[in-house]
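Hypothesis: this fold can be encoded by more than one sequence.
Test: take the C-alpha coordinates below, design a sequence, compare later.
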Protein backbone atom coordinates (compact mmCIF):
# COMPACT_ATOMS: atom_id res chain seq x y z
CA UNK A 1 0.00 0.00 0.00
CA UNK A 2 2.79 2.44 0.93
CA UNK A 3 4.51 1.56 -2.34
CA UNK A 4 1.33 2.40 -4.33
CA UNK A 5 0.94 5.77 -2.57
CA UNK A 6 4.60 6.59 -3.17
CA UNK A 7 4.26 5.58 -6.83
CA UNK A 8 1.07 7.67 -7.20
CA UNK A 9 2.79 10.58 -5.50
CA UNK A 10 5.75 10.27 -7.85
CA UNK A 11 3.41 10.32 -10.88
CA UNK A 12 1.71 13.47 -9.53
CA UNK A 13 5.10 15.17 -9.09
CA UNK A 14 6.18 14.19 -12.60
CA UNK A 15 2.89 15.39 -14.06
CA UNK A 16 3.32 18.73 -12.28
CA UNK A 17 6.84 19.10 -13.63
CA UNK A 18 5.64 18.26 -17.12
CA UNK A 19 3.04 21.04 -16.93
CA UNK A 20 5.82 23.48 -16.03
CA UNK A 21 7.80 22.43 -19.09
CA UNK A 22 4.91 22.86 -21.50
CA UNK A 23 4.98 26.11 -23.49
CA UNK A 24 2.35 27.85 -21.41
CA UNK A 25 4.25 31.13 -21.62
CA UNK A 26 4.28 30.80 -25.41
CA UNK A 27 0.51 30.37 -25.31
CA UNK A 28 0.18 33.43 -23.10
CA UNK A 29 2.46 35.43 -25.42
CA UNK A 30 0.43 34.40 -28.46
CA UNK A 31 -2.74 35.55 -26.71
CA UNK A 32 -1.06 38.96 -26.19
CA UNK A 33 -1.09 39.62 -29.95
CA UNK A 34 -4.09 40.81 -31.93
CA UNK A 35 -5.49 38.43 -34.52
CA UNK A 36 -3.12 39.57 -37.29
CA UNK A 37 -1.23 37.63 -39.93
CA UNK A 38 2.47 38.37 -40.01
CA UNK A 39 3.96 38.82 -43.48
CA UNK A 40 7.17 37.12 -44.56
CA UNK A 41 7.00 37.83 -48.30
CA UNK A 42 5.77 41.00 -50.01
CA UNK A 43 4.23 39.03 -52.85
CA UNK A 44 1.50 37.85 -50.44
CA UNK A 45 1.32 40.51 -47.71
CA UNK A 46 -1.61 40.58 -45.30
CA UNK A 47 -2.48 44.29 -45.30
CA UNK A 48 -4.40 46.13 -42.60
CA UNK A 49 -5.92 49.49 -41.90
CA UNK A 50 -4.69 50.75 -38.56
CA UNK A 51 -7.70 52.51 -37.07
CA UNK A 52 -7.46 55.01 -34.23
CA UNK A 53 -9.78 53.38 -31.73
CA UNK A 54 -11.65 56.58 -30.78
CA UNK A 55 -12.09 58.43 -34.10
CA UNK A 56 -11.99 55.28 -36.24
CA UNK A 57 -9.85 57.21 -38.74
CA UNK A 58 -6.80 55.61 -40.38
CA UNK A 59 -3.08 55.68 -39.87
CA UNK A 60 -1.87 57.36 -43.06
CA UNK A 61 1.35 58.26 -44.90
CA UNK A 62 0.94 62.02 -45.35
CA UNK A 63 0.33 63.01 -48.97
CA UNK A 64 0.70 59.37 -50.12
CA UNK A 65 4.44 60.09 -50.13
CA UNK A 66 6.88 57.30 -50.84
CA UNK A 67 9.86 59.33 -49.65
CA UNK A 68 11.75 58.35 -46.49
CA UNK A 69 10.99 60.91 -43.80
CA UNK A 70 7.33 61.31 -44.78
CA UNK A 71 5.18 61.86 -41.71
CA UNK A 72 2.76 59.19 -40.50
CA UNK A 73 -0.50 60.80 -39.42
CA UNK A 74 -4.17 60.06 -38.71
CA UNK A 75 -6.53 60.94 -41.52
CA UNK A 76 -9.86 60.04 -43.15
CA UNK A 77 -9.83 56.46 -44.44
CA UNK A 78 -9.58 56.34 -48.23
CA UNK A 79 -8.94 52.65 -48.91
CA UNK A 80 -5.59 53.23 -50.66
CA UNK A 81 -2.13 51.72 -50.19
CA UNK A 82 -0.76 54.66 -48.19
CA UNK A 83 -3.21 53.55 -45.47
CA UNK A 84 -2.44 49.83 -45.68
CA UNK A 85 0.20 48.39 -43.39
CA UNK A 86 1.60 44.92 -42.84
CA UNK A 87 3.37 43.38 -39.89
CA UNK A 88 6.60 41.46 -40.26
CA UNK A 89 8.57 39.57 -37.64
CA UNK A 90 11.62 41.51 -36.48
CA UNK A 91 13.71 38.48 -35.60
CA UNK A 92 13.28 39.15 -31.87
CA UNK A 93 10.46 37.18 -30.22
CA UNK A 94 7.48 39.38 -29.39
CA UNK A 95 8.62 42.26 -31.62
CA UNK A 96 7.54 43.17 -35.13
CA UNK A 97 8.04 45.87 -37.75
CA UNK A 98 5.24 47.77 -39.49
CA UNK A 99 5.73 47.83 -43.24
CA UNK A 100 4.12 49.96 -45.92
CA UNK A 101 4.33 50.02 -49.72
CA UNK A 102 6.23 46.71 -49.69
CA UNK A 103 9.59 48.42 -49.20
CA UNK A 104 9.44 50.80 -46.25
CA UNK A 105 8.76 50.65 -42.53
CA UNK A 106 7.48 53.20 -40.07
CA UNK A 107 9.43 54.22 -37.00
CA UNK A 108 10.56 56.99 -34.71
CA UNK A 109 12.28 59.82 -36.59
CA UNK A 110 16.08 59.35 -36.31
CA UNK A 111 15.40 56.48 -33.86
CA UNK A 112 14.78 59.12 -31.17
CA UNK A 113 13.10 58.05 -27.93
CA UNK A 114 11.74 61.35 -26.54
CA UNK A 115 8.05 62.14 -26.05
CA UNK A 116 6.73 63.97 -29.11
CA UNK A 117 9.08 62.26 -31.58
CA UNK A 118 7.16 61.97 -34.86
CA UNK A 119 6.66 58.61 -36.55
CA UNK A 120 7.96 58.65 -40.12
CA UNK A 121 8.46 56.48 -43.18
CA UNK A 122 11.94 54.97 -43.58
CA UNK A 123 14.00 52.11 -44.90
CA UNK A 124 13.53 48.95 -42.85
CA UNK A 125 16.80 49.10 -40.94
CA UNK A 126 15.66 48.45 -37.40
CA UNK A 127 16.50 51.26 -34.95
CA UNK A 128 13.26 52.87 -33.79
CA UNK A 129 11.21 50.48 -35.95
CA UNK A 130 10.61 47.54 -33.61
CA UNK A 131 7.25 47.37 -31.88
CA UNK A 132 5.24 45.15 -29.57
CA UNK A 133 1.53 44.91 -28.83
CA UNK A 134 -0.14 45.63 -25.47
CA UNK A 135 -3.72 44.37 -25.21
CA UNK A 136 -6.16 46.90 -23.75
CA UNK A 137 -9.27 44.78 -24.37
CA UNK A 138 -12.01 44.62 -27.00
CA UNK A 139 -9.46 44.50 -29.88
CA UNK A 140 -7.91 47.83 -28.82
CA UNK A 141 -4.11 47.76 -28.69
CA UNK A 142 -1.23 49.96 -27.72
CA UNK A 143 1.69 49.78 -30.14
CA UNK A 144 4.86 50.16 -28.09
CA UNK A 145 8.15 51.19 -29.71
CA UNK A 146 10.62 48.75 -28.18
CA UNK A 147 13.68 50.96 -27.63
CA UNK A 148 11.81 53.79 -25.90
CA UNK A 149 8.96 51.85 -24.28
CA UNK A 150 6.68 54.61 -25.54
CA UNK A 151 3.43 54.22 -27.49
CA UNK A 152 2.32 55.44 -30.88
CA UNK A 153 0.03 58.34 -29.98
CA UNK A 154 -2.79 59.74 -32.09
CA UNK A 155 -2.40 63.51 -31.79
CA UNK A 156 -5.34 64.48 -34.00
CA UNK A 157 -6.53 64.54 -37.59
CA UNK A 158 -3.70 65.52 -39.99
CA UNK A 159 -1.25 65.63 -37.09
CA UNK A 160 1.84 63.47 -36.85
CA UNK A 161 1.56 60.27 -34.87
CA UNK A 162 4.13 60.63 -32.09
CA UNK A 163 5.82 58.71 -29.31
CA UNK A 164 4.21 59.29 -25.93
CA UNK A 165 3.65 57.74 -22.54
CA UNK A 166 1.68 54.51 -22.67
CA UNK A 167 -1.30 53.76 -20.47
CA UNK A 168 -3.36 56.85 -21.31
CA UNK A 169 -6.50 54.89 -22.05
CA UNK A 170 -8.95 57.64 -21.11
CA UNK A 171 -11.12 59.34 -23.69
CA UNK A 172 -10.12 60.23 -26.41
CA UNK A 173 -7.86 57.13 -26.11
CA UNK A 174 -4.82 58.55 -27.93
CA UNK A 175 -2.70 55.42 -27.59
CA UNK A 176 -5.26 52.84 -28.74
CA UNK A 177 -5.27 51.32 -32.23
CA UNK A 178 -7.29 48.57 -33.90
CA UNK A 179 -5.85 46.57 -36.82
CA UNK A 180 -8.56 45.88 -39.43
CA UNK A 181 -7.70 43.21 -42.03
CA UNK A 182 -8.17 44.35 -45.62
CA UNK A 183 -6.78 41.64 -47.92
CA UNK A 184 -3.71 39.82 -49.20
CA UNK A 185 -1.69 42.05 -51.52
CA UNK A 186 1.13 41.46 -53.99
CA UNK A 187 3.54 44.41 -53.73
CA UNK A 188 5.68 43.01 -56.55
CA UNK A 189 2.91 44.21 -58.87
CA UNK A 190 3.87 47.75 -57.77
CA UNK A 191 7.67 47.45 -57.68
CA UNK A 192 8.26 44.65 -60.22
Amino acid sequence: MARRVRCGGMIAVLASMLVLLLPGSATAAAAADPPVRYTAWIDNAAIYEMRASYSWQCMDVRGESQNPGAVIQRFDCKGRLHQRFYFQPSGTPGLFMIGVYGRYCIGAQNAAVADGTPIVLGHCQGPGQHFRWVDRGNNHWEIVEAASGKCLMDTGRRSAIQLGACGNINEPYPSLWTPVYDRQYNYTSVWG
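The longest strand covers residues 177-185. Residues 131 and 145 are 4 Å apart (CA to CA).
Hypothesis status: open.
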